[in-house]
Amino acid sequence: MKMVAPWTRFYSNSCCLCCHVRTGTILLGVWYLIINAVVLLILLSALADPDQYHFSSSELGGDFEFMDDANMCIAIAISLLMILICAMATYGAYKQHAAWIIPFFCYQIFDFALNTLVAVTVLVYPNSIQEYIRQLPPDFPYKDDIMSVNPTCLVLIILLFISIILTFKGYLISCVWNCYRYINGRNSSDVLVYVTGNDTTGVSSSADSEVCSGVCGHDPAPSASSVLLPPYDDATVNGATKEPPPPYVSA
């Protein structure tokens, strides 16, 4: 029986709305690219006109500086980095370069870990939610309604909301990972192979893999008896050193 790794069971070439994982990764990269571009424009406009996004102490409910120049520059640098990562993922999925998708995949893992830590914090310290709500400005929408909710129910609602977000983020991570595996496997299967000696196992396995790829809809795995093509110089030298066939003698 052939052993299959547990993580290979979740491998699929299709994602949401029955589109291909490449299409889903391209759409996801473009979506993140638009969001970070909008955030960058807001930060640049706030840096150019600080009074437009200035909040007084009474509006914030205490002595708190909303955003200084140092934090603004850091936020702009992060937005530029995110735009670069999203553009790399979109280009890598479109041009089928698997290495270009890795930074975006690492960002997704980091974002998923941060949201998981938030869920653990809410679960371990449920009173921190009430403290955070009390620190909100007095004119914050629905602040009194949120404070009147039972603390246990409020924690359960927030945990349910975070769980839905984590499930959705996990699905997007699997989509990008499957796209990386698809592109990586497709690039490795495009290598020309030949069979050494009189071994015909590679030919039969290659034919079987092609038939399986046509029926099952996935890329064939490379054969164990297949090797790369020899260099051109070695092939020409070996061909030139072969002895010519014996002369034909008529009966």
UniProtKB/TrEMBL annotation:
<dbReference type="GO" id="GO:0005765">
    <property type="term" value="C:lysosomal membrane"/>
</dbReference>
<feature type="transmembrane region" description="Helical">
    <location>
        <begin position="70"/>
        <end position="94"/>
    </location>
</feature>
<feature type="region of interest" description="Disordered">
    <location>
        <begin position="228"/>
        <end position="251"/>
    </location>
</feature>
<feature type="transmembrane region" description="Helical">
    <location>
        <begin position="146"/>
        <end position="168"/>
    </location>
</feature>
<keyword id="KW-0812">Transmembrane</keyword>
<feature type="transmembrane region" description="Helical">
    <location>
        <begin position="30"/>
        <end position="49"/>
    </location>
</feature>
<dbReference type="GO" id="GO:0012505">
    <property type="term" value="C:endomembrane system"/>
</dbReference>
<dbReference type="InterPro" id="IPR051115">
    <property type="entry name" value="LAPTM_transporter"/>
</dbReference>
<keyword id="KW-0472">Membrane</keyword>
<protein>
    <submittedName>
        <fullName>Lysosomal-associated transmembrane protein 4B isoform X1</fullName>
    </submittedName>
</protein>
<keyword id="KW-1133">Transmembrane helix</keyword>
<feature type="transmembrane region" description="Helical">
    <location>
        <begin position="100"/>
        <end position="125"/>
    </location>
</feature>
